[in-house]
Amino acid sequence: MRHWKYIVIVFLLCAGCRQEKPKEITLLQFNIWQEGTMIEGGFASIVNHIARLQPDFVTFSEVRNYNDTDFIARLINALSEADVTYYGERSVSTGIISRYPILKQEVVYPLQNDRGSVLKASFLVEGREVVVYSAHLDWLNCSSYLPRGYGSSDWKKLPLPITEIDSLLADNRASFRDDEIRALLSDAQKEQDKVVLIGGDFNEPSHLDWQADTKNIRDHHDVVIEWDCSALLYSNGFVDAFREKYPDAVDYPGFTFAADNPAAKLDQLVWSPDADDRERIDFIYYRSDHTIALKDIRIVGPSGSILRGERAPDSGKDTFIEPIDVWPTDHKALLATFILLPEGYSQTVK
Asked: What is the 3-state secondary structure (H, E, C) of the chain?
């Protein structure tokens, strides 16, 4: 794979100058299901999993600040009590914390009627500026349910699946997801020569998971489609970290939703009970400008999903960092490890 070529070259470069291990950074994408309030002990579980994994950056979806509290401040205080230091600033819908102090945090796409948002924060890592975007995209017009015979906003069963591509894309574009990604991409254009990472719950699949190899499985009903958000990111130089490491969408489905959380009631997890709606909707992307190389990515969470309204073990070859005790959410998280490449190196590798 391409990222391994970059890693090999980095080690060769280092071997020719000084024996110094390249700097690694890690990012955890974590949908926390209403701040962990849907599961008894959910907030403590969020704290425990972050303290266990100790990622450099965490991007959150479903920050709510319930009861006029500051979730990020509360989380940082709880992590401090666990002897782990993180930095962060108040936010809503999306959130970011880091083991590095925040240089600047700003809203790229504001939350409106709970239809998604994008947050951005900048950090300095050993003299390199790292820009992290946290995206929690619009949850309505989830058009991947239509080929499975369910409504995209009310999740009611349809008389027949909808499989016509123009109809699917028209419904998908009635959401704000493509607007939110366009706002992110426009902002990222200003961040040239910086490391740029994205973590998010997109509420939309990747086009890489809906190609010819999957058209006759997972109730895709022969649909091959270029879903908007992933196609926009790829056309603007961003790479889906999970699919970069595991390009085979059949053997490595990477499902992140709906996770089989044993602590949740089954009816909390079922959206289309007669369909196979297992999907990869949580992502980590990185800008492929050779400032960084992907080393590894793991799924964090229970090794099971909801299939046709029932709990089922995940098929395929995916491996998991299994939860410790309670899992706080109906999503699975992602943990990616990157290597920072030497400055100036990007212009020499294609």
From this structure: CHHHHHHHHHHHHHHHHCCCCCCEEEEEEEECCHHHCCCCCHHHHHHHHHHHHCCCEEEEEEECCHHHCCHHHHHHHHHHHCCCCCEECCCCEEEEEECCCEEEEEEEECCCCCCEEEEEEEEEECCEEEEEEEEEECCCCCHHHHHHCECCCCCCECCCCCCCHHHHHHHHCCCCHHHHHHHHHHHHCCCCCCEEEEEEECCCCCHHHCCHHHCCCCCCCCCCCCCHHHHHHHHCCEEEHHHHHCCCCCCCCCCCECECCCCCCHHHHCCCCCCCCCECCEEEEEECCCCEEEEEEEEECCCEEEECCEEEECCCCCCEECCCCCCCCCCCEEEEEEEECCCCHHHHCC
CA gap 249, 314 in Å, rounded: 13
The side-by-side arrangement of strands in the sheet containing 195-201 is 102-109, 116-125, 128-137, 195-201, 282-287, 238-240
The predicted-structure confidence for 247-303, as pLDDT tens digits, reads as follows 999 999 999 999 999 999 999 999 999 999 999 999 999 999 889 999 999 999 999
Neighbours of 266 (CB within 10 A): 13
8 A C-beta contact, residue 124 and residue 143: no
Residue 315: other Cβ atoms inside 10 A: 14
Confidence tier at 342 by pLDDT (50, 70, 90): confident
- The rounded distance, in Å, linking the Cα atoms of 256 and 236 is 24
Total-model pTM: 0.93
117 - beta bridge partners? 136
